[in-house]
């Protein structure tokens, strides 16, 4: 039976006039029917959020914390339900879907425990004055999320927004709507009042634009492409509302010749193959010191040959999530060939019996790459790695920073001084040393340059979901 996903507005399911079909990536066949939202649906959601705001904003923080903690427990209790949806809509291996859902639960758990965090400070103005600051919610917050990690990204934005006392109108990607709807339903079952969290489904050009433009939205958070971010940024600038952007990356993963060789090889694999490379943090530019480059590439390729790609529950790498992205990655195979890069693994679309008609692609590694090539500069968002050799520390830093992006970077070295020097010099919002994509819900995430601005995750996110007020009293 085909699953149908509807809006969730003011605590109840709201059907749409029209629906569209979201394909199942592992088979390439039609999947769920998804509500096609309108500006009227967005307006209903915002008005519901406005009605719910006073009670949610003014309740004791500890009461908000209890509900967020209950949502975390409920997500874990429904793990199999969430995982089945993420697997069908996103093409993820089962282990990965469950891992991302666990992280979603951790966001609610983490922020549920932070609701009583300090809310301001006192300022000394001398005798006769009492001055202090307050951190207050914005009001109704719009959260727009991408298709690569649906419920994980939704929880990352929604949990701190709610913890700070905001109400939320969220739009997931039209390709992966199911788990965000289920999240809202689960939250309601945990006691979240109607209107506090609303989900409107549909396309970005219609629903996303309507959320950003709605006069009731007081703050926006967007994760996705630079193209869409520019459009949202124009509207936010015109409306003069705050905006958090978490965008793309072309992150350098730097391996020095004194690194633990085996650990670095395994880390280089993990850096670009997880989620079939569809991660903005992915370490897709592998910078290797020339003295070990050939040996490192050989070891990397041998390890990658053992990685299972396919629809199986135990596969390490699943499918590309959307057909458009599946076709886009293949275009880069042609671009790489035309630029003169050498494919030492993969580099061409193929069909394997176990893949059927699913949108699977081979793991691909390119050498003979220079940093001015398109495959080294543009975010491919697939399981494609470019290898670039470097001479010394200064050369590594120069290449690492020669990019329009600045989301993350990896450093592999046994030299503690070098680790700190390079971490300070590389222009990126998150630096991982001797492990790639280290950290968790506690560590703040934000980008430099065209990777965005503002921060998600950690205590820092709460500052981006609150506004500061200063009160000064003459005694």
Specify the number of helices.
15
CATH architecture of the largest domain: 3-Layer(aba) Sandwich
- Number of discrete domains: 2
Question: Order of strands across the widest beta sheet?
Answer: 15-16-17-14-13-18-19
Number of strands: 21
Largest sheet: 7 strands, mixed
CATH class of the largest domain: Alpha Beta
Family: Belongs to the aldehyde dehydrogenase family.
Keywords: Oxidoreductase
Active site: 246
Protein name: Aldehyde dehydrogenase family protein
Describe the overall structure:
The strands form five sheets. The protein has a seven-stranded mixed sheet with strand order 15-16-17-14-13-18-19, sandwiched between helices. A hairpin with a 4-residue loop joins strand 4 (19-24) and strand 5. It is 40% helix and 21% strand. The chain has 475 residues and is an alpha/beta fold. It has two domains: 4-247 and 451-474, 3-Layer(aba) Sandwich (Aldehyde Dehydrogenase, Chain A, domain 1); 252-441, Aldehyde Dehydrogenase, Chain A, domain 2, CATH 3.40.309.10. The protein contains 15 helices and 21 strands. The chain has helices at 39-58, 61-77, 79-90, 94-112, 150-163, 178-189, 204-213, 226-239, 261-273, 293-304, 323-339, 374-377, 393-401, 416-425, 460-464, and strands at residues 4-5, 7-9, 12-14, 19-24, 29-35, 122-123, 129-137, 140-144, 167-171, 197-199, 217-223, 243-246, 252-255, 285-289, 342-345, 364-367, 384-390, 408-412, 430-433, 452-453, 466-474. Belongs to the aldehyde dehydrogenase family. Pfam families: Aldedh.
